[in-house]
Amino acid sequence: KFVLTHRKLLQFKQARIWYQKTITLAPQSPEAYCNLGNVLQEEGDYAEAVRSFEKAISLSSEFARQFPQIYINLGNALMDMGQDKAALTAYQQTVKIQQDNVGAYIALGNALLQQGQKQEAAEALSRAISLKPESGSAFRNLVQTRGFAERDTDVETMELLYGCADLGMEDKMELAFALGKVYADLKLDAQSFEYYRQGNALKRATLDYSIGQDRELFAAIKQTVTSEFLQRHAGTGCDDATPIFIIGMPRSGTTLTEQILASHSQVHGAGELNELKFLIERACESHTQEFPQGLLGLNKTELSAIASTYLERLHAYAPGAPRITDKMPHNFLYLGLIHLLFPKAKIIHCLRNPMDNALSIYRALFARSHAYAYDLEELGQYYHLYQDLMAHWRKLMPGGFYELRYEDLVTDQEAQTRRLLEYCELPWEDACLEFYQTSRVVRTASLAQVRQPMHRNSVEAWRRFERQLQPFVQALRA
Q1: Rounded Cα distance, 470 and 12, in Å
Q2: CB-based contacts of 113, cutoff 8 Å, min separation 6
Q3: Model confidence at 287, in pLDDT bands (50, 70, 90)?
Q4: Which long-range contacts (CB under 8 A, 24 or more apart) does 392-395 make?
Q5: DSSP structural state of residue 433
Q6: DSSP codes, 365-419
Q7: Phi, psi dihedrals of residue 350, rounded to the nearest 5°
Q8: Residue 116 banded pLDDT, cuts 50, 70, 90
Q9: 349 touches 403 (CB < 8 A)
Q10: What angle do CA 302, 246, 414 make, to 5 degrees?
């Protein structure tokens, strides 16, 4: 529910049921499998989406040739699952079929960027721009491949495009975030923030969202997952110590924390997984109620099934790995259930100065979700809800999770890393201090930070924008 509005969730649920019925009636229809894959991908069930796309391709190679977008969709789902090599193959297949497919080059460039291959990414994105010079998405990804020390021809081109009256809203929004990053590199704070402000406003205008929806959700979670609920279902969970859950607000240090742990020989970093959210919501749906009220209808067998299915899916990411991280930040919504279903799992709550956290969120254009992020007042209101829910979990399960402050980590790296590993019951390994040398795909807005040594550059960065951030401050204190 934190990913999409209630209305969108209902639409996707109805569409999924419709396409599943269509497949029952026409099991050889590649179109039906492709459409089902699209819906599953939007819902966050990436593994099933991949299976649907692959089924469509296997049913008709001609359909895939006529609709090469299916390879991009397949690649996107594979990227979400962390299968980057397979994703690159899918994107390259699109280019092979359709050499002028702008979206394929953007997807390819983004995938290469997430793997740290900046030069190759820049080449793919430059190819996309040569095919579509006004592509804001290509420019937004391109500026991530390098830093800017001056206003060069790329910057001038983006500014000219941004000023075009006939530029589409989506391209304009993407360009605003691109130029915000450029002027941040140039240390021109006022210009940078203004571009981010405009980009956020353009993005917010496209969203069907109300903070009231989240107020109701957070209140319902607190009313549903109580000490009585946990006591009633005690003993439901699985004694599997594989999972390490890393939670917190986006841009709070979750990616950095996962990168440190993934540098350990006993840990696989699986990234942001939707599996737990998906399984919980589907279980509630089976009782014709939404999360969290639907939890009240679940018995111990159904709750145990959530745990066992989640673990099965988690192990599929890295068969044989002793520990696997799930870095979905908003799993804080399910913290009571995590504590119940996985009593031996480790839970790490990443915290950060709310002001720096808000600034970092406001500068990010998320691939999906986080509808609250594009208006500073709404962001402050949501942040308050998050803080209140975390206070509920602390009271409900004292000592049930480890809290790691971003500022402490970047100030005293070795001591904090040792404490983190000790909490996770992992032996010390020097590689965890050199996390930036660990080669793995990073699929979040923090990909640049985790590929360089620890630094304090973003600590107290908010002070340069204290005036602009006042709507967040006032909403947070309300």
Answers
A1: 37
A2: 121, 141, 144, 145, 447
A3: confident
A4: 392/221, 392/222, 393/332, 393/335, 393/336
A5: G
A6: --SS--GGGGSHHHHHHHHHHHHHHHHHHHHHSTTSSEEEEHHHHHHSHHHHHHH
A7: -90, 130
A8: confident
A9: yes
A10: 150
Q: Identify the DSSP state of 322.
A: S
Residue 180's SS3 state is helix
In this predicted model, what pLDDT tens digit does every residue of 205-241 receive, in sequence order? 999 999 999 999 999 999 999 999 999 999 999 999 9
Q: Is the peptide bond before 292 cis (omega within 30 degrees of 0)?
A: yes
Does 67 have pLDDT greater than 50? Answer: yes
* Residue linked to tokens 């908003």: 330
Q: Say which amino acid occupies 4.
A: L
Question: From CA 44, how far away is CA 48, in angstroms rounded?
Answer: 9
Nearest to 311 by CA among 273, 263, 284: 273
Give me the pLDDT at residue 369, please: 78
Residue with tokens 């439901």, as numbered in its chain: 236
CB 115 within 8 A of CB 441: yes
Q: What is the pLDDT of residues 444-459, one digit of tens each?
A: 555 555 556 777 888 9
If you write DSSP's letter for every residue of 64-123 in order, what string do you get? HHH-THHHHHHHHHHHHTT-HHHHHHHHHHHHHH-TT-HHHHHHHHHHHHHTT-HHHHHH
Nearest C-alpha neighbor of 323 from the set 242, 419, 426:
242
DSSP 27: T
What pLDDT was estimated at residue 445? 53
Question: Sheet of 346-351: strands edge to edge?
Answer: 267-269, 323-326, 243-247, 346-351, 402-405
pLDDT at 282 over 90: no
